[in-house]
């Protein structure tokens, strides 16, 4: 168990009968080694991730619209480490084939449109790996917790999300949805750090403290959204994330698994290698 | 000289009197150490690049439109290593604050618009670092070499580029333009490799061989475009790039220099740290 495997990561799947109280944010399921051992596990997928992403990118270039793409949707409470997780996983990729975007408070223009309007602008292109730092799920989380919309509207949105994700999947987008699950105590530590370090001030917002009062409501909203939107083509994983390195390792393992399943060969030569070699030599 | 400094990188500046024949693509100006020493130099800026980029991103978040941004324009002949250079420099950054895009053969829709139309869509946002793999310069390089447009049109485009870049600079975009300069022999080796390795086939295009016939014309077009568009706010650097690791190290050094000159402090707290700490503790 000082080895963390892809099979361990896959056990973090949260399906239709998911209970968020079953997940201990301080735990590290599948791994009970020490810090140094975790550091090793954290890097072991890097070369394969790089290779798999390049194959995907190459297929996008060679096969255009028929090539698949990947969408990683990351959710989690404030300070759960979404940005850092994306950074660590995506630093193994070629930035030319990836795209990362965040969804904060909607702008006035965005509020005039359906909640999926601003999301659809960022649909992955063939061969691309896209990460969403927060997403359309905010529209059934923060908005539900604060009762900014009624439950009928939540039902409508959940249905719209299911349709949207099914539509993406039908177009060849492989979706993976991940909640980085931290404890309320860990968030407290992280928020305090943001008031102590000059290089963290910019991340702190006094309203984060008010949001903490709604913790249990958020957990209920997450649980319900996860149960109702988990699907074979858009699975949810809930990663215990008080241990950041564990969370990032698990995310890498899930990405490797997803990319392996694309089963991508290198695009074949559409030229005769020998003839071309001669032409180049004579040029 | 086993140490490569920022001052060495800055000497690669190509200004109004630039002669491309003065640059030996096989050379490594400012560095004459061995492979292991170069490997060390290659990594030495990484931590600082990470820190500087995070400051820039934080300023974008905190100050919105008044925050600067960065645009790296990379040009070079086929196989000059533009993609790899971007990958290695940008892997030190947080992908959330960066954006990379390439400009290939224009689509039919793009051809119906002015040549800058497709470029302007990718203007950097405040706090962002953007890389262009090829750019609007293709419109005064490949198009000039093949005489697809006449010289009057080239003059018009050069002027349009100068205006466009000045306009970006006035909006707070810090521009850096880099040509990765390889030799014709090195390109030959690289092209042959693409016909020999299954994982490289997708990068090979038989028309690359035809383009090689126009090498001297390309060099003339590069020289002229560089001379006429170099500016204090949009400087050109020409990096000898037969040695890939040298080229990437030089590019990192230039990026460090640019980011340092932004002289970015962490955004100050817009809250009272002590009060907030108490609120968090009691929450």
TrEMBL record, chains A, B:
<dbReference type="InterPro" id="IPR022300">
    <property type="entry name" value="PPK2-rel_1"/>
</dbReference>
<keyword id="KW-0808">Transferase</keyword>
<dbReference type="GO" id="GO:0008976">
    <property type="term" value="F:polyphosphate kinase activity"/>
</dbReference>
<protein>
    <submittedName>
        <fullName>Polyphosphate kinase</fullName>
    </submittedName>
</protein>
<dbReference type="InterPro" id="IPR022488">
    <property type="entry name" value="PPK2-related"/>
</dbReference>
<feature type="domain" description="Polyphosphate kinase-2-related">
    <location>
        <begin position="35"/>
        <end position="258"/>
    </location>
</feature>
<dbReference type="InterPro" id="IPR027417">
    <property type="entry name" value="P-loop_NTPase"/>
</dbReference>
<dbReference type="Pfam" id="PF03976">
    <property type="entry name" value="PPK2"/>
</dbReference>
<dbReference type="InterPro" id="IPR016898">
    <property type="entry name" value="Polyphosphate_phosphotransfera"/>
</dbReference>
<keyword id="KW-0418">Kinase</keyword>
<dbReference type="GO" id="GO:0006797">
    <property type="term" value="P:polyphosphate metabolic process"/>
</dbReference>
